[in-house]
Amino acid sequence: MKRRDFVQNLLITPVAPAIASAQTAPPAEPARQQPLPQANPQMRQTPQQPHEIPKLPTTDADLTAQTAPQYFTALEFATLRKLGEILMPPIKNNPGAIEAGAPEFLDFLISVSPEERQKLYRFGLDSLEQQSKHKFEKSFSELNAEQADSILRPLLASRFWPRDPFKDPMHNFIAEVHEDLRTATMNSREWAAASERGGHRFSRGFRGTGYYWYPIDPISEG
Amino acid sequence: MAVKSYDVLIVGSGHSGGMAANILTGKGISCLMLNAGPEADYEKDRALKHTYELPYRGFNKPGRLPHVFQADEFNANQWVDEKEVPYTYPSDAPYNWVRVRLLGGRSLFWARQSFRLSDYEFKAADIDGTGENWPISLEDLAPYYSRVEQIFRVTGRKEGWPQFPDGDFVESTFPPDTETIKRVTEIANKQGVQVSKWRSALGRDGLASSINLLLPDALTTGKLDIVQNAIVREISVDKNTGLANGAHFIDRHSGREMHVNARVVVLAAGCLESTRLLLNSKIGNSSGMMGHYLVDQMYGVSVVASVPEARDGKAPPGLMGGSAFIPRFRNLSKDKKSDFIKGYCVGISSGASASANYFPLYGAELQAKLDSYANSCVSGSIFGERVARHENHVRIDPNVTDRWGIPVLHIEARDTDNERNLRKDAADTIESWFHDAGWEIICKTDEVNPPGYSIHEVGTCRMGNDPNKSVLNKWCQSHDVKNVFVVDGASFVTCGWQNPTMTILALSMRASEYLAEQMRTNSI
Q: What ipTM did this prediction achieve?
């Protein structure tokens, strides 16, 4: 007998005699019958342990909604979006930072980051805006590609380890925001979908899939 | 309640504890192993996921594990939580203490590079003119290295070089070198630098850990009990004899305090945890040397070059790919003087792509560069030896305790000009090789990650013949408390440039056989 049939029989068999006993004479050997959970109203208060739970399909939040940016000011966020547009545009078949929702994701990430990182971002975004106002008399988010390049290019620098800080804070900010925009883009669902469709393949910062370790035997917080 | 009595209590379940359990139970000695964390269950604890499915899109939770650079969002939960078991350090000298408390410890995740120390390390003071020699030589440890290499199935190419002692390798043939590896080899050879191959432990079934190579045999004897989630707080001492008689430990989940009796205590908790336990127990430190001479290797110095004829996907077959390993070549002779003592090894790897952070470019221009340079790179990275110094030390921080109320470590480790000069020499030397090969240098750094990053921390209970200058004798046995042994990396006198695992295993095997003999003759 299959396990499921066996379980069902267990559930069903006591029921028939119970109904029968209410209507007709008691069965010959009542002592052999198993106790009947449903027959006792008090027992119904006891949570039942299901034998099996159906697995229902659920939908990932990212497929139904967008991250609502709320950390940076509107002006700072416009600068961050502009950086995404310039530093990580869509190339070949791959999405760019804007298509991958990278600025919105970074708004969230920085909002939950240590204060030092929050300060670096705020300093960097505000400085870009000031430079833009000073040089072009308009917001950084309103610059064309050539104007933005004239501000950004002198701030780019090479480094071996992505973590190594530069002495100059603006070099540091540009390196960090560039790295973060690239990673947030290449780790996105949109990027993975483009890769699956046979788009151009990148490796840096893009892991694709991996074994995720859950919290192992976590300590009760209670 | 009936409580079992054990001959030996082993604290820790990684390579060193696993080896102690394997040897001791094999001699009929009953052992209890206490491990601070749980046993991992690959089925339950891991799942294959896309990066975008992770809560922080692969960035890891900000601020978590700030000192574990090896952690990413996939593996963050396998490391010890820095908030749960904190440690302190001076604000100007951060230390990366990278820990695993799962059953099997760091033996679950090590990189498997498997080298012997040579007498250039065991007798370093003779060559450097400073520091201390180990109380043992390669000859003492060689038979144990051989047995360990067989258990771990180490591959390597035999060379016969004194600075790179050969092992008992299961495989010693390698595919022919590519042209780029040949080119570096030729240039290095001309400078008298010898070039070999990596030596790596194959293990079995994709794992080279105490949990598959050492502990199963120990359990089969019926002489080993393993308790998980048992956090040892203090070694208990018999006031009349001054000998250890067991340990106090805490159940990780409930915080319940327990005590176990044992005739002998073997510490194998990883060098800094073993030392922390001894310091908290206030035993074994009549020399005042406990906690001192903390040392590990420098990782991070690297040079990357791009091979012009390999760009734009035009590399002919046989040009790119493969690797080489260059064992220490500096300061092997007393005659040749550098502006530093000790040395470094170099790993050469061919065929990788360039990282975006190498180039001060962005957007389409950056992508075109990355595309062009894909698979055209040769890199050289070092493991550099630091000098073991008295001032680099750990002590108990009187103001901070961990989640279980156990005082934590304060760690102080700083580099000096010796380390900086060594790094500069390494970066300049590798750069010159790549330059001579006709390749474009695209990135070079002589900076390193903070100490501890190599996860090769050793020392703090160094061994020696003089009880005034060392904590342990040459058998990893406490000078002060004869029934306490420390079989992990704490006994190291110098760190060498070599990955320490084979040496830790060989020392643990040797100490455990010595201990078994002492117990058989009732000398302990």
A: 0.91
Give whole-number Cα distances, B454 to B70, B97, B299, in Å: 10, 9, 6
Segments of chain A scoring below 50 in pLDDT: 1-33, 35-37, 200, 202-205, 222
Strands B393-401 and B407-412, bridge-based pairing: antiparallel
**A120: closest CA of chain B, how far (Å):** 14
Could you tell me if B381 lies within 8 Å of chain A, comparing CB atoms? no
Choose among B267, B289, B250, B277: nearest CA to B407: B277
User: What pLDDT, on the 0 to 100 scale, is given for residue A199?
Assistant: 55
A59 touches chain B (CB under 8 A): no
Q: Within its chain, how far is the Cα of B265 from the centroid? A: 23
Say if the Cβ atoms of B445 and A203 lie within 8 Å. Answer: no
A159 touches chain B (CB under 8 A): yes
Three-state DSSP at B323 gives strand
- DSSP collapsed to 3 states, B130-168: CCCCCCCCHHHHHHHHHHHHHHHCEECCCCCECCECCCC
Which has the closest alpha carbon to B10: B268, B287, B385, B312?
B268
Q: Give yes or no for B364 touching A (CB within 8 A).
A: yes
Do the chains contact at B362 and A161, CB–CB below 8 Å? no
pLDDT digits (tens, 9 = 90+) for A183-210: 999 999 999 888 888 754 543 345 678 8
Residues of A in contact with B357 (CB under 8 A): 158-162, 175, 179
Question: What pLDDT is attached to residue A168?
Answer: 93
Two structure tokens written together for B167:
């092992």
Q: Nearest CB to A187: which of B38, B57, B78? A: B57
**Number of continuous H segments (helices) and E segments (strands) in chain B:** 12, 17
Question: Is residue A175 helix, strand or coil?
Answer: helix
- Residue A28 exposed, middle or buried by CB count within 10 Å (0-12, 13-18, 19+): exposed
Token look-up 């067991």 returns: B246
Which alpha helices (H) appear in chain A, and where do they start and end? Answer: 3-12, 15-23, 74-87, 102-111, 115-136, 145-152, 169-186, 189-196
Report CB contact under 8 Å: B38, A187.
Answer: no
The stretches in chain B having pLDDT less than 50 are none
Q: Do A105 and B52 touch (CB under 8 A)?
A: no
Long-range contacts of B401-404 (CB under 8 A, 24+ apart): B402/B84, B402/B85, B402/B86, B403/A219, B403/B84, B403/B85, B404/B231, B404/B233, B404/B250, B404/B252, B404/B255
Q: Which two tokens stand for residue B238?
A: 């018999």
Residues of chain B contacting residue A162, judged by C-beta atoms under 8 Å apart? 355, 357
Residue A109 burial (10 A CB sphere; 0-12, 13-18, 19+): buried
**What burial class does residue B50 get, using C-beta atoms within 10 Å of its C-beta: 0-12 exposed, 13-18 middle, 19+ buried?**
middle
Number of Cβ atoms within 10 Å of the Cβ of A146: 7
Structure-token match 């050469």, residue found = B348
